[in-house]
Amino acid sequence: MQRYVLTSYEQSRGGTREVYDEFLRLSGAAEPPIWMTSLGHNPTLIRAYWEKTRGCLLEGELPHVLKEMVVFVVSRVNGAEYCSACHAHSALQLDPTLTYHDLVSILDPKSTVPLPASHRMALQFADKMARDANAVGDEEFEKLLKAGFTESEIKELLGVIDLAMMFNCYTSGMRLPLDPQYKALLES
């Protein structure tokens, strides 16, 4: 059973078209991604998803590439193929020195991926939050503070983790197919 209907740019109207236009302007993409077009039938819902995405992922204090890696890590934990591929693609676009294998192995203690220690700590925190947020104690937050993250940045990190969890649930529940550029990444 197909669980979604895609609303192309040409079919979009009103609030949906506004979201598509803003996404295209900010991302430089040629067309909206499948996750977005799967929400295109409902202007209120697509606006809500887009606002959260823009606020958590595209704005803020944390480096964009770190946020993309956080979403990738959380999505891998949750087995969310669409989000894993999408955010691996974005991270690799932002940092062409990385490879897909680097992202997959980034939390391995033997990883040689050049990454600031604070970023590795943020990714480990994201991994723990995705596995069981209730098991994350004060000491994990204190480690982030000692690594140089401000309270505001920690809240932003939590927002990115929450964004990933939301999209993991949505894209996996809808069984969305991969956009061609994400599929190509996994096949390389």
UniProtKB/TrEMBL annotation:
Annotated SUPFAM superfamilies: AhpD-like (SSF69118)
A single GO molecular function term of this UniProt record: peroxiredoxin activity
InterPro entries: AhpD-like, CMD-like
Domain of life: Bacteria
Gene3D superfamilies per record: AhpD-like (1.20.1290.10)
Domain Carboxymuconolactone decarboxylase-like: 48-93
Protein name (database record): Carboxymuconolactone decarboxylase-like domain-containing protein
Organism of provenance: Rhodoferax lacus
Lineage: Bacteria, Pseudomonadati, Pseudomonadota, Betaproteobacteria, Burkholderiales
